[in-house]
Amino acid sequence: MMAKYTLPVGPQHPALKEPESFWFKVEGEVIVDVDIRLGYNHRGIEKACESRNYIQCLYLIERICGICSHSHTTAFAQCVEEIAGLEIPARAKYIRVIVGELERLHSHLLWLGVAGHEIGFDTLFMYSWRDREAVLDLLELITGNRVNYAINTIGGVRRDIDGPKREQILSQLDLLADRAKFYADLVTTDSTCLARLENVAKFSAEQARAFGTVGPTARASGIDLDVRRDDPYAAYGEMPFKVIISDRGDLLGRAIVRLEEIGESIKILKYALQNLPDGPLTVKAPRKVPAGEAVSRYEAPRGEDIHYVRADGSDHPERVKVRAPTMANIYAIGESMKGSYVADIPIIIASIDPCFSCTDRMIKIVRQESGEARTMTWEELRQYGIRWYQQ
Amino acid sequence: MLKQLIKKSRISSPWLVHFNSGACNACDIEVVDTLTPRFDLERFGVLLKATPRHADILVCSGPVTRQTRDRLIRIYQQMPEPRFVVAVGSCACTGGVFHGCYSVHGGVDAVIPVDAYIPGCPVRPDAIIDGVVKLLGKIRGDTEACPLQSNSKAI
Amino acid sequence: MSFAEQQQSDLSRKDILADLCAQFPDEVSGAVSTRPGRAWAEVSKEALHRVVEFLLGCDDKAYLSTITAVDAQEEFQVLYHFWAGGTEVTLRVKLDHNNPVVPTIMDLAPGANFYEREIHDLMGIEVTGRGELKRLIVTDDWPEGNHPLRKDWKGLPGGEDDG
């Protein structure tokens, strides 16, 4: 009988507002149990919103996550607009779609780089992040900032896209479409990628549904769900796109879904830019929002983002609830890890795209019976995984 | 003599460790972004290391949350001396928009001493490079390049 | 008809609210649809389990989106948000302010695990019928009985911390 180890990973993990610490029970190389602890980045945004007015809340909510900031503000603004009975102008709806899709492009390219890094394919990381800069340039052109765009306001958007900007964005999109195709070919044919991604951490459609997974993670298990199509918001009711589904259920499936979504996003962007309706950018929003409540859903790059807002008639909300997509996916990933190898931990966690790239996490291996402890960093674990596969 | 050699190598090739003490991820991604081809921080000899024991400079982003506070202090203490801390982003400088939240202690300087502050929400990669280069000037003793004063509380 | 509308029409948006009321005439009250795709209904906590079972079984895409707890001063409300039958259905359970207890729905939707731990941490809602509600969001040294999202919560004991 092999000795059982407990392998703590974390706690430093900055995913949205829900970083987590994993405690793996391992038997030899195989993970037998996982325990997850969140809250390291818990800042108390929901409570803070209750003492700020709606416009201030918007800025706070922008900073829930630095990668899907537009998703959160759009979801929140939609809630408030629904309670206040505002119908935002068509042009504002289109601009929300354009910024939202550019955000999806940069997020998926970011994910590809991180995934490449975790499997020891750093060339892919450098390539995809270089292309991501092109998207960030476009976002900066439209909104004035690379990240945290602050383009949304209650009742519309704050900046316009004029003719020259439109031309510039369109000219960049063809280039990005080429690159996306190149990456899709690369991931599905390169032997390094296949060896690390195929048939790892599989879960079936049944499991994905039971755990309530959302977004690309769910679609890679064959679940046909996309808020943009099923419950259209902004101008998505008019956009031509197809929902990408893969029935593989493994890491490769999640990669394919994201890479093909880049192509669909580019299609949406082209359509939205070419058919941008004329008109104003905002409608006048009241400072005080009448009493009421609303739920709004948004298809963020990582999946369905849900906001619930309850207003009491004053100028600040009574309750704001945010459920970011990683919260829905992280539990499923914990369950699907059982039976996988220690060497696969980094890429499995990265596969749900919890914005995993950016920090150093201390990992400690404690041998249970002797209490002997060994501390590994995230980087060492990653190296370990790469070496383990080279053998 | 040996000390001077160490100082010289520290300035020519400072090693960084990055720690997220509760940030929204935007600054973290921008820190990683400085390593990618467009900005390429490595041309200054800067390497991002995974463990605090190898690092000269702690790059810290985000307000310090209750749950990360002890971890931040531990990481700081694990670094070999002399150690330097850079607070990246408005939140790390002062607590930013999260100032006053029940789960936030404030900026990084509420917990550990900070040597350089880089404001911005999020900080642009160019600003991070500028900040790190200015800090190197400060280490060299070149006060003109970096008229910063650390007024932070010691732990 | 645009491309997306065609896609949309393939999906049946069932009148889930009518089904719900027909199935549970006594247990479900205050059913209202605020706009297409949004439905709200109130259920008693005794009937919650059966209603959730019905909702999750109504089509093959139904899932639990999240659970929200609201402190409505005179009572607590726990809102269960489901995506079912092409509609976002919100079930509202009203709880006594002195004794906020709901039954678990983890056996029906395992994904509820984290959401139940979250409302326990932040709002102090007890969930029965499942294992221990381990800390998920608040810190390890968080004092017992402090639930930050409650309206009467005035901050941690000991006043301002050193931050």
List the helices and strands and how they pair.
The complex is a heterotrimer of chains A (391), B (155) and C (163).
Chain A: E1 4-9, E2 20-27, E3 30-38, H1 45-49, H2 54-62, H3 69-84, H4 90-118, H5 122-143, E4 152-153, E5 156-157, H6 163-189, H7 191-197, H8 205-210, H9 215-219, H10 227-230, H11 251-274, E6 292-300, E7 303-311, E8 317-323, H12 325-336, H13 345-351, E9 362-367, E10 373-377, H14 378-390
Antiparallel strand pairs in A: 1-2, 1-9, 2-3, 4-5, 6-7, 7-8, 9-10
Helix pairs in contact in A: 2-3, 4-5, 4-11, 4-13, 5-6, 6-11
Chain B: H1 2-12, E1 15-20, H2 26-33, E2 47-49, E3 57-61, E4 64-65, H3 66-78, E5 84-88, H4 90-94, E6 104-106, E7 116-118, H5 125-140
Parallel strand pairs in B: 1-2, 1-3, 3-5, 5-7
Antiparallel strand pairs in B: 4-6
Chain C: H1 3-10, H2 16-23, E1 28-35, E2 38-43, H3 48-57, E3 63-71, E4 75-84, E5 87-96, E6 101-103, H4 112-123, E7 126-128
Parallel strand pairs in C: 2-5, 6-7
Antiparallel strand pairs in C: 1-2, 3-4, 4-5
Total count of domains of chain B: 1
CATH architecture of chain B: 3-Layer(aba) Sandwich
Task: Catalogue the unreliable spans of chain B.
Answer: 143-155
CATH topology of the domain at 3-98 in chain C: Beta Polymerase, domain 2
Structural class of chain B: alpha/beta
How much of the polypeptide of chain B forms β-strand, as a percent range? Answer: 15-25%
Query: What are the low-pLDDT stretches of chain C, counting only 5+ consecutive residues below 50?
Result: 1-11, 159-163
